[in-house]
Protein 1
Amino acid sequence: MTARNCPECNGLVASTIDICPHCGYRFGAEPKSTQRRGVNPYNSLVWSVVGLIFVPLFGLISIIFYLMSDGRWSAGDAAEAEKYGRWSIQFVKIPILVFIAFIVIFLVFILIMGLSNAA
Ligand SMILES: [Zn+2]
């Protein structure tokens, strides 16, 4: 026998029953738009927050794209949500890589300077 969780009370309900015995929730009654809402898979808030720490300007732009992506996702427009989500990630990925590259170059420079001073 298969069972599923009730979205209202999270109780286990046999798949053969359409009404939750715990709270009376009706399965299959919710409209499609709310079913596909869920979590935006193109969500990149982590990237945006990291971006805010490393490169605030790009992090801010990234968050704007993130919010636009989430807005499109809530409206049921997955294609647009994906587009804005990608932009949101791109806007922090590149500056963070550049920032890390600069730190690495800087550290190598310091190291070389230190070695040449010691010699
Ligand atoms: Zn229930």
Protein 2
Amino acid sequence: MAKIGIIGAGIKGLTTAYKQELLGNEVFLFEQSDRVGGALVSKQHDSGYLTEDGAHTLLLNSSELERFIHSFDSLKSSFIESNPLTKNRFILKNNNLYPIQPTPTSVLTSKLLPIKSRLKIISEIFKKPKIRDTDLSLKDFFIEHFGEAFTDYLINPFIAGTYAGQPKYLSTENTFPSLLNYERQYGSILKGLIRNKSSFKNKIISFQSGLSELPIAIAAKLTNKPILESQILDISKENNGWKMCIKSKELPSSDWYFDELYCTLPAFKISQLPFADCIKKDCPKFESIDHPPVSVLSVGYHKSEIQHPLNGFGYLIPEVENKKHLGGLFTSKIFPNRAPENHELLTFFIGGSRSPESASSDTDKLIYELAPSLSKILGINSKPRFIYQRFWGQSIPQYNLGHSQFLNRITDFEKKYENFFFVGNYKQGISLSQSIL
Ligand SMILES: Cc1cc2nc3c(=O)[nH]c(=O)nc-3n(C[C@H](O)[C@H](O)[C@H](O)COP(=O)(O)OP(=O)(O)OC[C@H]3O[C@@H](n4cnc5c(N)ncnc54)[C@H](O)[C@@H]3O)c2cc1C
């Protein structure tokens, strides 16, 4: 049995701890704050609204992930699937919302794209296999395969809604490696998607009290409870293992010895870790990974104050439409218990790498700037009855061009300093599904 130390009790730290326990190891998890869950923060407000600070949905995209969730009794009974009426996503064009679903038929039949662009998409199926010797941006990759209109009106808003990023900066190799594989194997991405269609039917889920239920359920199953409000004072190599000097609210400062250490902190926190000087000099410059700021603004209205039927998941805005916000979720349509009766909860995302200066901790300013768009897009002309905001000064890691070289530096560090592992959303994928498995 190995003794494992894990730094950080976000979803990555908790799932790493859980898996290590299943392997029969003894695990100790150290968390700086007074709660587990990290970026997963669900809040039930007295007014009856239920908000999320960060992630709003978890994509169940494999039976393995589904089994994992169902292995927690408390989650099984609290599991909620998104309302089937929210299958449509909307894309904004000229202040009109165009419904679209993530299927080739929906894209090809939607009036969002001009006929010429739709023909270009169909002709992609004839592309010949291609091996590239250099990475390229998502923007260049998608323009080459499906043309500019597709990239501007589908890929650009999709990347804003997932990475809070821009396709012109992101690396194809790191964000969608499977698409490069399809290109190598079939030439056509469409062909690759059709031939590799999973038999698993994806589900978008959350829990009755929000996504925070997930980290709480995992923490409750661990043999050694996460040590909260802990402060790591020193990290150094000790023979084949590692030594950490740690103090917490309940424990005086003392030395702990581990066979293996896992760092699950967000990249922008890693440079603050107190590595011994000789190790620090070899540590990759994690602070160089961009995490653009994002404001997550939750607002509530009486149903009668919204003219749009909100008959979908929400909407995304292509950059070419020049709006201050990236898009909005029809949150209480996706999960009806998020708003009191006869009210709706909407969530807007502002900032990202497209417009970092628009994100702000000043809620009044955000509401003021958003008002004209809400009037035009959703027919909302009154002040919200409920307002809650979370400003993320650093949100989601951007896998920009050159990210592979950065990952190589992490591998070099892990080779040199055996039994130390960096795991986090800058490496295994940004989504919760990727963080869990
Ligand atoms: C605005 C926003 C919206 C998102 N929406 C979605 C979505 O809808 N769906 C989806 O799948 N994903 C979404 N994501 C991404 C997803 O939420 C994150 O990738 C994931 O939660 C990150 O988990 P983590 O454990 O890697 O990091 P974190 O959640 O950041 O956890 C790290 C933990 O380390 C702790 N810590 C920090 N410093 C120290 C230290 N020195 N010592 C000990 N502990 C420390 C922190 O307190 C924290 O608890 C979203 C993210 C954001 C920001």
